[in-house]
Amino acid sequence: MTDRTIGVGMVGYAFMGRVHSQAWRNVTAFFDLPVTPAMRVICGRSEKAAEAAAARMGWAGFTTDWRELIRRDDVQIVDVCTPGDSHAEIAIAALEAGKHVLCEKPLANTVAEAERMAEAAALATGRSMVGFNYRRVPALALARRMVAAGELGEIRHVRAVYLQDWIMDPELPLVWRLRKDKAGSGALGDIGAHIIDVAQFVSGQDIVGVSGLTETFIKERPGGRVTVDDAALFIGRMSGGATASFEATRLAGGRKNALRIELNGSLGSLSFDFEAMNELWVSKGGGGFTRVLVTEPEHPYAGAWWPPGHGLGYEHTFTHEIKDFLEAIGNGTDPSPSFADGLRVQRVLEAVERSDGAYTEIL
Ligand code: SOE
User: Fold this and answer.
1) How far apart are the CA of 164 and the centre of ligand 1, in A?
2) N or C: which end of the chain has fewer CB within 10 A?
């Protein structure tokens, strides 16, 4: 532990606010860091809810004005956990005020917003990072390590899906994630963004072209018309020559949080399913898949926690994310993924929407 305390202010207190708070509270209990976060203030629209969130989640203060949060001299980090329509305004204001910024995914709701955010980050004195937390699953960080070491050889196929089913009930009301003005897009930007980032991170290759389609199956809900996609499917080529296929849907009944990715290379394959997040399946030279339980001390992040075989969960990926963010700030390096990486994901999302329907009908 050091005496280099760094103040944190968080905007938002829903699901992401809760899981980020868990990470801010726990990170120094498991990782030795060059700086120590102090949970100064949480911001939300409702004063009553912000006060309750501060008490429950461990924040010293609360406010309903994010501009006041940014102005505070005892806040050096701004953590943006709001719906996508406010990411640009809050993150740019925080960067221009000299703060470090962690912004939830996707970076923004449009490429134009993401471009302004990436430009502000490039000019800023503060460090910035996008919250693609799945890069911090030990199994996916191990997968990245194995690909980078050439253990799979030349990567030929990347196959990623992200399957959920929480909007299957047509009586689920028109929550903000189902409104384009708040979320920018539906499954495409919400969970499609994750598999785009994970595919690029694990393979070490960028997506350089896509063709895809989106579909909205449940068009009306209590509260009005759905203005985003329920599902997005797209294929692409990657910068190292691999072909790629993606599917993101929140209507896959029975699939709760099934982020799955498989890579096939000239020397072997890797396969991962977040619903069994402590396991990585590996095939070498065309042999069958064997299971690696990614809980050994030498595996990424795993050594900080429990003995082998005890396993980690969703929340730990956010502790790893914030650990890496604080380490970068303390060591004066740029965190990854950067806002420029987030802009690249936004360009892929926009390309899928632009390509929508560009397919050949079977007459
Ligand atoms: C809803 O689809 C959601 O909460 C996403 O927004 C998160 O990024 C994902 O980790 C879990 O599902």
Assistant:
1) 9
2) C
Q: What residues have CB less than 8 Å from 9, skipping those under 6 apart?
A: 40, 41, 42, 43, 69, 70, 72, 75, 77, 78, 79
Cβ of 14: how many Cβ atoms within 10 Å?
Answer: 14
What is the pTM assigned to this prediction? 0.97
Q: Give the separation between CA 43 and CA 51, rounded to whole angstroms.
A: 9
Q: Are residues 76 and 148 in the same domain?
A: no
Q: Are residues 130 and 182 in the same domain?
A: no
Q: Which atom of ligand 1 is nearest to the CA of 194?
A: 8
Residues 82, 88: Cα–Cα separation, whole Å:
10
User: How far, in Å, is the centroid of ligand 1 from the Cα of 280?
Assistant: 21
- Point out the domain boundary residue: 134, 167, 187: 134
In the listed set 86, 103, 134, which residue is the last one of a domain according to the structure? Answer: 134
| pLDDT tens figures, 225-235 | 999 999 999 99
Q: Report the atom number in ligand 1 closest to the C-alpha of 15.
A: 4
Give the number of the atom of ligand 1 that is nearest the alpha carbon of residue 187: 2
User: For residue range 103-149, what is the model confidence (pLDDT) as tens digits?
Assistant: 999 999 999 999 999 999 999 999 999 999 999 999 999 999 999 99
Q: Do 256 and 173 fall within a single domain?
A: yes
Which residue, judged by its Cα, is nearest atom 11 of ligand 1?
Answer: 257
Full domain range(s) for residue 313: 136-361
- Pick the residue whose CA is nearest to atom 6 on ligand 1: 190
